[in-house]
Known about the structure:
Blueprint: E1 3-6, H1 7-10, E2 11-16, E3 22-23, E4 30-32, E5 49-50, H2 54-60, E6 67-70, E7 79-81, E8 88-90, E9 94-99, H3 106-112, H4 116-125, H5 136-140, E10 143-146, H6 149-192, E11 198-201, E12 206-209, E13 223-226, E14 229-232, E15 245-247, E16 251-254, E17 264-267, E18 274-276, E19 281-285, H7 292-300, H8 302-311, H9 322-325, E20 329-332, H10 335-375
Parallel strand pairs: 4-8
Antiparallel strand pairs: 1-10, 2-9, 3-5, 6-7, 6-9, 11-20, 12-19, 13-14, 15-18, 16-17, 16-19
Amino acid sequence: MNTIKSLGDVCESITYGATASAVATNHGPRFLRITDITEDGVDWKRVPGCQISRQEYLSSSLSDGDIVVARTGGTVGKSFLVSKPPDSVCASYLLRLRPNREEVLPEYIQLFMQSAAYWKQLMEAAQGAAQPNVNGTTLAAIKLRVPPKDGQALVVQRARSVLTEAEGARKAAQKQYSELQALTNSVITNSTLNCRCKPARLEHALCEVRDGIGREWSSFPVLGATRSGLAPAKERPGKHAERYKPVTAGTVFYNPMRILIGSIAFVDDDDEPGITSPDYVVLKGKLGVVDSRWFYYWLRSPLGERCIQSLARGAVRERMLFNRLAEGQVQLPDYDTQVKASKALAQIKPMRASIQRQIAELELLPQKLIAQIFES
């Protein structure tokens, strides 16, 4: 029979981490920080040691089955189940939960702490809008459904099996996506090996779109450029919506503040045309000189990345408008070679899109499974 209990009810203790300073030494206990916790767990060999008083050591030392939770900052609420740690303590901006093993499995608690039910209660309890944080008291008050231990074990076993399979499938899909990306780059590279390539400045190959859409702006979706390419914009147009630029089939556009990290998009023949921020750089290849699809994939390839880096002045958040990009040099294949490569790239696109959807679904699967367990 399930009962509703609080985290305080099912934990022997909820205590704060230590205020010790990390030191680059193998002497003394390891000093676990939130930055040491990755998706793959903790590489304890990389965790620094620390010098700490006996009293603080006793209150913050880590044992197998403990759960540490970030209590402040951008990672507030992030949790990690400690498994067979070396001699170690946790930092002061972490809380240490020690489950009562006679009543609850640590793995069950950690599973709950991935659920929307946990996060909803946590955010409601968080204090401070600018810098949300939780303390031991508010964390202890969070409620959860607790079945008997054999029921918890079945839940954990089922979840572990499904999540392991999902992670394996996600990694396989990610590998396929990487292979397609390598194929895309290969198509671009091979096209530039054509003996009829010639150096050209981008200003002679591209046309910038500067004019806004005008009063018709509300008839079009707002599009943005991300590291993955074309995507719906997060925000609707503001006061000067008529200044938003049209992005139709054959248009390349990018965020001038984020081009260095790959925020570049392309509207293909089968994409719905739209509008984009007037702050974005929007351009097309000159007819008979540059195929826009070829140029988009060139710009996202290692060849394009090197060109962008050569034009940058060093600042990560540098603003690269068209006049700067226009200074770039490209080994430009003849137009027929570009078109041939462009057709091959068009055939790769639906395969990439299919794998991206598969990856997105697999990434949502853990949330759906955990929701079924704790919210049904």
